[in-house]
Design brief:
single chain; alpha+beta; SH3 type barrels; Alpha-Beta Plaits; 3 domains; five-stranded antiparallel sheet; 11 helices; 8 strands; LSM_dom_sf; MscS_channel_C_sf; MscS_archaea/bacteria_type; transmembrane helix; Mechanosensitive ion channel
């Protein structure tokens, strides 16, 4: 008996693998004659065994990975159950096809179950990915926004698949959706602007949670939450301020915590003319060494900046470990410098002017026409 050619074994190019497998099973059941139920039993048994094998292999894989939480482990945890159910439902599908009991309603129900299962698994995998990104690099603090977008994409794709499975007529709905979309677009311009602003802030890596930012010199605070629409900032007065992302994207934002947490302060210091500037430097640096808020590295420096109108002007440059301790550090340094100068007898001058009056030997002569007893109203 001649062996079947490759053309009779492999599926034609114009036929999908699922249709080819279904037709092959029908031919196999027809060759059995009255033994169609035997083929159904074999298909169901094979699908159940394959589903069991998938679960067993999944447990073996997860067990071999230990307790380490990785994205691959989390994804496989969410996928292995839908995969086993998919294998079992495919067995039911082919069994009904062999018995010629495959109705459109049954196909729709099976497809709906599969779409819901895989949509749920996809959303959960996306959430695991977002969580791992947040636990890792701080660069991904905007990741929750993309997690929400991923959920929306999966939901829309699932709805489109269900529409295709049930072969629904969607033309009237599309027309209505177009009109509704235009109305919503005009009504939600601000929300869309904030969303786009949030995406731009994410890619620019402007700030992250815990950073101290200054917005156009009007507001300064710590970033406590970054959302799709807005960013929440805790000010120095312990007030929560919600700032739209569109505003942050269009204005100047100074991140005082980047690229590093420590921050340099510039503190002006004055001393009276005639003061030994080396003594001033020695006293100021001793105050910085005793202040716990000042970092040792980079080391503090005192610069002789200029000759002022009434004093020698110095500038102290020190580093602190966090922007939020700026005012406390300035307060302690100023107190320490004042006490040190007072003990050393150094005067801190206040703004003053020296006026000199020059006496003219010639003097001035006034005639009667210049100085009179008449009032301006009595003059002609």
């Amino acid at each position: 008996m001649p062996s079947p050619s490759a053309e009779t074994v492999s599926p034609p190019l114009e036929v999908s693998p699922l249709e080819w497998l279904e037709s092959s099973l029908l031919e196999f059941a027809g060759s059995l004659g009255d033994g169609a139920w035997l083929s159904v039993a074999l298909i169901l048994l094979g699908s159940v065994l394959l589903a069991r094998f998938v679960q067993w292999a999944s447990r073996r894989y997860l067990g071999s990975r230990g307790e380490e939480e990785t994205f691959g482990r989390a994804a496989f945890t969410e996928v292995h159950t839908p995969l086993a159910i998919t294998v079992a439902l495919l067995g039911v599908y082919f069994s009904l096809a062999v018995l010629d009991l495959l109705e459109s309603v049954v196909v729709g129900l099976i497809g709906t179950v599969l779409v819901v299962l895989w949509a749920r698994a996809s959303i959960r995998i996306g959430r695991h990915w977002i969580e791992m990104l947040q636990e890792g690099e701080a660069t991904y603090e905007f990741a929750p926004m993309f997690g929400n977008l991923w959920t929306i994409v999966v939901a829309i794709s699932s709805v489109l698949l269900l529409v295709s499975i049930w072969d629904l007529e969607v033309t009237p709905f599309l027309a209505s959706a177009g009109v509704i979309g235009i109305v919503i677009g005009f009504a939600a311009q601000d929300a869309i602007g904030n969303l786009i602003g949030g995406v731009a802030l994410y890619f620019d890596n402007t700030y992250k949670l815990g950073d101290v930012i200054r917005v156009e010199d009007d507001m300064r605070g710590t970033v406590t939450d970054v959302g799709i629409r807005s960013t929440t900032v805790l000010t120095e007065d312990n007030l929560l301020v919600t700032v739209p992302n569109a505003m942050l994207n269009s204005t100047q934002v100074v991140n005082e915590s980047a690229p590093q947490r420590h921050m340099r302060l510039r503190i002006p210091i004055t001393a009276a003319y005639g003061t030994d500037y080396e003594l001033v430097e020695e006293l100021v640096l001793e105050v910085c060494e005793e202040c716990p808020l000042v970092l040792d590295s980079p080391s503090p420096k005192l610069l002789f900046k200029e000759f002022g109108d009434s004093a020698l002007v110095f500038e102290l440059r020190v580093y602190i470990n966090h922007p939020l301790v700026e005012k406390r550090a300035i307060d302690r340094i100023n107190r320490g410098v004042y006490d040190a100068f007072e003990d050393a007898g150094i005067t801190i001058p206040f703004p003053q002017r020296e006026l000199s009056f020059l006496e003219d030997d010639v003097g001035y002569e006034f005639d009667e026409r210049t100085v009179t007893d008449e009032s301006p109203a009595d003059r002609d």
